[in-house]
Amino acid sequence: MAGLIAKYHCNYCQEDITGLRVKCAECPDFDLCLQCFSCRAEIGEHEFNHRYQLIDCGNIPIFQPPHDWKAKEELALLEIVEHFGFGNWEDVSESIGKTTEEVCEHYNNLFVYGNIGRATWLSRNGHQVQDHTCPENGPLSPSLTTPLPPLELSSQEQQELGYMPDRDDFEREYDNDAEAVTCNLSIHNDDEDIDIALKLAHIDIYSRKLKERFRRKKIAREYGLVSQFFNSSSSNKQKSMNTKKSAREDKDMQEKMRVFCQFQAATEQEQFYQNLQKEKEVKSRIKELMRYRRNGLTKLEECAAFETARYKRERKKENKKKSGSSGSVHRRSTLVSKKPEEKDGESGQDKQEKTVLKEEIKEVDISTLPNYQLLSAREKLLCSTVGLKPAQYISFKAVLLKDHLKKKQGNTVKPKYPAGLDKTMRKKIINYLVHSGWITAR
After folding, report:
1. Per DSSP, what are the bridge partners of residue 189?
2. Which of 109, 194, 316, 425 is most enclosed, with most CB atoms within 10 A?
3. Separation of CA 62 from chain center
4. DSSP class of residue 183?
5. DSSP assignments along 356-380, one per residue
6. Where are the alpha helices (H) located in 223-363, listed in sequence order?
7. Which residues of 212-228 are buried (b: 16+ CB within 10 A; e: fewer)?
8. DSSP helix/strand/coil, 27
9. Residues 6+ apart with CB under 8 A from 347
10. CA angle at residue 227 from 222 to 230, to 5 degrees?
11. What does the pLDDT look like over 318-332, one tens digit per residue?
């Protein structure tokens, strides 16, 4: 503090002047202490009868009691507060040699709330921090300090959402790791301008994340999204689900359309979902009517009879698939493997069996299934008879051939069959491969 106040010395005795000093009004830069002035000291061009000025060095108080601070202490206080910043009373008190409470109270009473403060500060309310990053009615308004109305939820709903009513907060917020941007930031006196700019940019990023979090909370309260969520959940539990496939498709559709929730209210969003579902049903109905038209139906009265007949045909196909036996496969393989001279001498019973097998083959059409072109003619006949998909047959055939090669090498193999094949189908395929020479009998 002493370094902030200019020092004077007596031109006669060369001692420092700490109190009142006597300055000669006629000699330039000539000062005397009170002792030398009382002795009528003369030196050089200075004579004792020159005119004088009494000047104080800052040791007298400038404010009325009870403020007993000296003038040089007041000047030092203002300069130290300007250096360390307003409110940093610990560093200010350490530099000036007084307690923190005394320094804070003295400065506020005289230079903030006193006459000097009222004359220099325009208005206390005029220095409040204001957000200028967006317009008043912009997407990130209002301010973060505006309290939101609390949610009225039951204890069970609070547990499901992770909501803490006393804090009006959630266990997991939007962008839950937003605080990681500023958790390790600190300002140091030796920071360069680029370091300070980088830290301020981090703070700006964090502020924008908080505003977006606040905006989402406000939207959820304004449009009642929380209550709508629990109402829809309870109604969905009471309603019976039609099928897993349709429920999964509806859920996927709602997930894709959820991005539009921020542009419309809850009722509008629900109406939007209903319109999409109605569009889906209309397209399905159009597809069904086009199928009727391809089958030659032109009146709605004919559709009921057509559906009844189609249902009977499908049931008949399913019954024939289930009633298929290994004997039919053996008879079919015998017919396929016959020589030309044997076919010429076929009996009437063999011809009848062959005709029945051909009818059975026509009942199951697998030509539109994937990997159909990879099968031979006999394999196509086998798969169509037992109602087996080409991909399943190829997978099972690869497993059997691999196990057969390992057995020929002397390795012990535990058979692994693909899922979806019953014991009868496996036996038919193995018999076919043995008869064709792919593998040997076990």
Report:
1. none
2. 425
3. 62
4. T
5. HHHHHHHH---TTSTTGGGS-HHHH
6. 225-238, 244-257, 266-294, 301-322, 326-337, 340-344, 348-363
7. ebbbebeebeebebbbb
8. coil
9. none
10. 150
11. 888 777 654 454 455
